[in-house]
Amino acid sequence: MLSIRKQRILQILWILLALVMIIHSSTSIFSIQPESSQICSITGCSSNTYSKHELQTLGLSLAEINLYTHILMLLFLITCLGLSALLMWKVAHERMAYYTAFTLVAFGGTAFSKIDTFFTSSIWATGIIAIACAGQILFFLFFYLFPDGKYVPHWTRYPGIINIPLLIIYYIEIYVPVIYHTGAIPPWLHTGLLTVITSWSILLFSSIIFAQIYRYRHKSDLLQRRQTILVMLSLLSTLFVYLAITAIRPTIIAHVQGLLLFDVTATTIMTICLLSIPITIGIAILHNQLWELNPLLNRSIVYSTLSILIISIYILVVGTLSTLFQSSNNLLISLIATGCIAILLQPLRNFIQQMINRLMYGERDNPQIVLSRLGQQLEAALSTSTMPQTIVDTVTQALKLPYAALQISYRDKQATVASYGNSQAYQEGQLLHLPLIAQNETVGELILATRRPNETFTEADKRLLKDFAYQAGLAVQAVRLSADLQRSREQLILAREEERRRIRRDLHDGLAPTLAALALGASTIGDVITIQPALAIDMAKELNQNLLDAIGDIRRLVYDLRPPTLDELGLLAAIHEYIQQQTQTSRGTNIDASIQLPEQLPTLPAALEVAIFRIIQEAFMNILRHAQASHCLLQLTYDEHTGIHLHIRDDGIGLQEQHRIGVGLLSMRERASELGGTCTIANTAAGGTSITIQLPLTNEH
């Protein structure tokens, strides 16, 4: 933000500069000599002697044509002045607006005039040359700074700085010998300097284009991107027209009559193109609601690059053949060069189009490459935890997307596990939700933002995303399975540690004090047996009972680890025995239990046998304590494809609506889940509770 005082100073300086440019351009018109054989146009000042036939055909004199071209230049200056004045009026507080305003005035008033032919005063001419040089410097720096006034990337300031002394040397070499009547520099030095300036100009324009593309892709917001597209479209179009005119003009000089008409036409077309640069700059800065111009920008870059390559190939072929055959202006050489261009035109265009499409839209036209890269990166991932971010990075890089996120579904919930970009810049309706499916199950969702707001994905994008989602779904399923496995391992470790803690607590708090008391009692018996035999006998009986209780505690601990009846009787007989014991010894309950078991079961893992037996224990204890049932059914079946099926049903009061899952029910679910099975607990239609357990068997089992 500029202070009011600084704004006033800058405005006064701008007015003075504008007056100087108006005087300069006006004087250039009045300085035209009727007998002049030189025409100064946008394409440069030509001293060719045009034929009288051409002048008669056009019905104009050289002075009138010169007047026409200078009026076009004056029109260019007036446009630059008007837009720069508008910028200072509308955006008076912005530094970039003042920079642009001074650039437009200095460049627009001096860029295309032949300075040394209009002035006899060396002081005035020197001032105009200084302004012209400053205008060129500001003009090139403008495209490094536009639209936010910062060098992006930071190294782009160095080409702009290097360009300053080169332009100063160029202006000194061109104008000082003429204005001050000093001797011209040696031809070899002039040629060398011109070669350096030409080569540097190519590098400079290339760095400007790169800087704007880099800014567009990595740093710009929506408005800045639209500003960049609009201005770069006009710059590239002007560059394309200039290269075309420069390439065609030598051919017309050598072979075609009508150079005068060509120069006048080229000047008119070039002026229109040049007018588009300040106009688009003004629109970009003053107008926020710009239309979408990506297709036009794409084509402009393609054909500008193609034109540069074609001209370079033509010059290379003609120059090489002319040197080899010691011939110039040879029609055969021109035909050979034209044939080479005709052969290379379509392949070059396709290649450039692919490169530009890849730069602007990513690799949407090469789905095989994208999918192959995804597979390679997933294969190279160190763990499944890095796969989600790999998926997100791959899709954003392949399609040049500003935002992407991956959500994984687990137990009816979705969690974002990887993302790229800032989601706050987009509303929900601007995001594409792409479901990820594996084995007919939605395992996650890929959330994507289009390259620009209010844009939609093309059919090519959708085809690529469809194939990408299939591969990503399989990877996400692997991530989910790995997470499930990790959780199972953690639960097993927690269960093992909890079991060890319980055993330690039982041994330390129960059995250890009991054994210590028994040792103390045995010692006391030894002390009193000779003095009080009767007391010693009573103490021995008490000690024997305590020993029996300790043995019972040890057996209980062993039974909790694994019921001995499973090893002694087998699973089916152990279930029968347990149900019979409970129905016979339960107090206050009169329950009839129906047991339906298969005749035999295959050899089951020890963990599976224990889980089945414990689930039955928990279920039957709940029925006895809480169900108030008179009958229950226990049904166990086996299927070689689906595994073990356990069904327990009672005719009790069922689960209450506001019931809280207790330790028993939770324990049954955890045991089933640990083995990869399911546990369903629900009320029956006739009343009572139904428990259904399914436990899978692996191929080994």
Automatic annotation (TrEMBL):
Q: Needs which cofactor?
A: [4Fe-4S] cluster
State where the protein is found: Cytoplasm
Query: What keyword terms does UniProt attach to this protein?
Result: 4Fe-4S, Cytoplasm, Iron, Iron-sulfur, Kinase, Membrane, Metal-binding, Transferase, Transmembrane, Transmembrane helix, Two-component regulatory system
In short, the EC number is 2.7.13.3
Keyword RNA-binding annotated: no
GO cellular-component term (any)? membrane
Q: Where is the Histidine kinase domain?
A: 506-699
What is the enzyme's main class? transferase
Instruction: Answer yes or no on keyword Cell membrane.
Output: no
Q: InterPro entries under this entry?
A: GAF-like_dom_sf (IPR029016), HATPase_C_sf (IPR036890), HATPase_dom (IPR003594), His_kinase_dom (IPR005467), Sensor_HK_TwoCompSys (IPR050482), Sig_transdc_His_kin-like_C (IPR004358), Sig_transdc_His_kin_sub3_dim/P (IPR011712)
MF (Gene Ontology)? 4 iron, 4 sulfur cluster binding; metal ion binding; phosphorelay sensor kinase activity; protein dimerization activity
Q: Which reaction does it catalyse?
A: ATP + protein L-histidine = ADP + protein N-phospho-L-histidine
Transmembrane residues, as ranges? 12-32, 67-89, 96-115, 121-146, 158-180, 192-216, 228-248, 268-288, 300-325, 331-352
**Domain of life of the source:** Bacteria
Instruction: Give any Pfam family that matches.
Output: HATPase_c
Protein purpose: Member of the two-component regulatory system NreB/NreC involved in the control of dissimilatory nitrate/nitrite reduction in response to oxygen. NreB functions as a direct oxygen sensor histidine kinase which is autophosphorylated, in the absence of oxygen, probably at the conserved histidine residue, and transfers its phosphate group probably to a conserved aspartate residue of NreC. NreB/NreC activates the expression of the nitrate (narGHJI) and nitrite (nir) reductase operons, as well as the putative nitrate transporter gene narT.
Q: What is this protein called?
A: Oxygen sensor histidine kinase NreB
The species is: Dictyobacter alpinus
